[in-house]
């Protein structure tokens, strides 16, 4: 039980402790913090004193999480255990409570500099739904889909923090009458995803096996991979998604450390055919994370992450099998999380079946793709120790 008021029973209790970057009106310089209940503990302030050992203090004076993420699992574990002790043991209350800032008094920033951004396509239900819509009459999954985690390279420079307004993208698309024109997207969509961020880099020319996932990956964020379906549909062959995806990708302010997800580990779906050796995990696991997608405050679906066909460990192994080096801040996202049921789908493309089945939200309007002024919010929960809940996210954004 933490001495911080309201932390007990909170999805941001001592069992979670996600990291982020914040500033205040009084001190506008972005600095590291850890969330506890409805407060942010100022890690730069904490590192100015004797609490941390001298070797780790410098990483908390950086303006983002990069240096801490690069420090690796022993440093992550040590700091996490120290923070748990600080937040549980009453002897620290008087000494450190001045470092707590109410979360509604801070401005949150992008938590780390995104090095490369890779996006996968790991949900069998999502890939099958899109296959049925885009290639009717043929096999919904292409022949490579069950042999490798299909993915593409995104645009790191347009990954933005939750809350950043999203300007409706313009681009080329094909009209219903077959004419090609340029203009604002009319089929603006979301993709509800989980992203994993690399802390420990590797040398160019080396591969990372799936069992080494936790040696490199620091934690998880929620991702909304905004997508312009009309631009995407016209441009994507033969080289894959480009401007229909690269205008903006939103991530949550808080990075949940992998250790906080230890209780959420669950068996991943069995794979048939068996994957090639470099994709084989000695302990195949997923995370039991349930997402929630809301449009203008109304919940539309609850995509389940646990059922994703390709796991984040397999994605990491696949994206390095060619020898591509990892860099601190590399972000790889799962692809749209969709379950078997309609109420578990993670995109409007699926929820409205390509715009042909509008959503009734009780406001009399027929909702298909995003309108100007719409706000999409994604949250998620996962089981923690002793029946507690880990709350991921949120990631939100409104369309300009
Ligand atoms: Mn995506």
Give the strand content: 25-35%
Q: What is the second-level CATH architecture of the largest domain?
A: Alpha-Beta Complex
Indicate the CATH class of the largest domain. Alpha Beta
Structural class per helix/strand content?
alpha+beta
Q: Which spans of ≥5 residues are poorly predicted at pLDDT below 50? A: none
- Number of E-type strands: 25
Number of helices: 10
Bound molecules: manganese (II) ion
Distance between the termini: 43 Å
Rg: 21 Å
Integer average pLDDT: 97
Tertiary shape: globular
Structural overview:
The chain has helices spanning 43-47, 66-70, 73-88, 93-96, 124-134, 213-216, 229-235, 243-246, 312-320, 348-351, and strands spanning 19-23, 31-36, 39-42, 100-102, 107-109, 117-120, 151-153, 159-161, 170-174, 180-184, 188-189, 192-198, 217-224, 227-228, 249-251, 256-257, 265-267, 285-287, 290-295, 298-301, 331-333, 359-360, 366-367, 375-383, 389-398. With 400 residues, the protein is α+β, with helices and mostly antiparallel strands. The protein has 2 domains: 19-109, Fumarylacetoacetase, N-terminal domain (SH3 type barrels, Roll); 117-398, Fumarylacetoacetate hydrolase, domain 2 (Alpha-Beta Complex), CATH 3.90.850.10. The strands form 7 sheets. Strands 6, 7, 8, 12, 13, 15, 16 and 21 form an 8-stranded mixed beta sheet that branches. Strands 4-3-2-1-5 form a 5-stranded antiparallel beta sheet. The chain has a 4-stranded antiparallel beta sheet with strand order 20-19-24-25, with no helix packed on it. The mean pLDDT is 97. Manganese (II) ion binds at residues 119, 191, 193, 225, 335-336.
């Amino acid at each position: 039980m933490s001495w911080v008021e309201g932390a007990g029973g909170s999805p941001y209790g001592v069992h979670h402790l996600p990291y982020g970057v914040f500033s205040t009106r009084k001190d506008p310089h972005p600095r590291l913090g850890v969330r506890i209940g409805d407060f942010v503990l100022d890690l730069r302030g904490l590192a100015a004193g004797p609490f941390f050992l001298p070797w780790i203090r410098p990483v908390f004076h950086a303006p983002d999480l990069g240096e801490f993420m690069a420090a690796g699992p022993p440093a992550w574990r040590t700091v996490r255990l120290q923070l748990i002790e600080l937040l549980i043991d009453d002897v620290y209350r008087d000494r450190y409570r001045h470092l707590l800032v109410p979360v509604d008094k801070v401005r949150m920033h992008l938590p780390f500099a995104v090095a490369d951004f890779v996006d996968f396509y790991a949900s069998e239900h999502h890939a099958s739904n899109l296959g049925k819509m885009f290639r009717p009459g043929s096999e919904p999954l292409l022949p490579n889909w069950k042999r490798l985690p299909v993915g593409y390279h995104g645009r790191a420079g347009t990954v933005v923090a939750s809350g950043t307004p999203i300007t409706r993208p313009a681009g080329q698309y094909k009209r219903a009458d077959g004419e090609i024109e340029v203009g604002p997207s009319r089929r603006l969509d979301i993709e509800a995803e989980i992203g994993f961020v690399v802390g420990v880099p590797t040398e160019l020319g080396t591969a990372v096996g799936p069992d080494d996932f936790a040696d490199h990956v620091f934690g998880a964020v929620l991702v909304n991979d905004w997508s312009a379906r009309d631009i995407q549909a016209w441009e994507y062959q033969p080289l894959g998604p480009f401007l229909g995806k690269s205008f903006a990708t939103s991530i949550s302010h808080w990075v949940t450390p992998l250790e906080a997800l230890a209780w959420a580990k669950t068996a991943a779906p069995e794979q048939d055919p068996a994957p090639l050796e470099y994709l084989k995990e000695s302990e195949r696991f997923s995370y039991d994370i349930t997402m929630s997608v809301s449009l203008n405050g109304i919940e539309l679906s609850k995509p389940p992450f646990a059922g994703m066909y390709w796991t984040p460990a397999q994605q990491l192994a696949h994206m390095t099998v060619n020898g591509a080096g990892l860099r601190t801040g590399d972000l790889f996202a799962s692809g749209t999380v969709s379950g078997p049921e309609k109420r578990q789908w993670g995109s409007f493309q699926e929820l409205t079946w390509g715009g042909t089945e509008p959503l009734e939200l009780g406001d009399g309007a027929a909702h298909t793709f995003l309108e100007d002024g719409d706000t999409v919010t994604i949250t998620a929960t996962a089981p923690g120790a002793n029946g507690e809940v880990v709350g991921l996210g949120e990631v939100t954004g409104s369309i300009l």
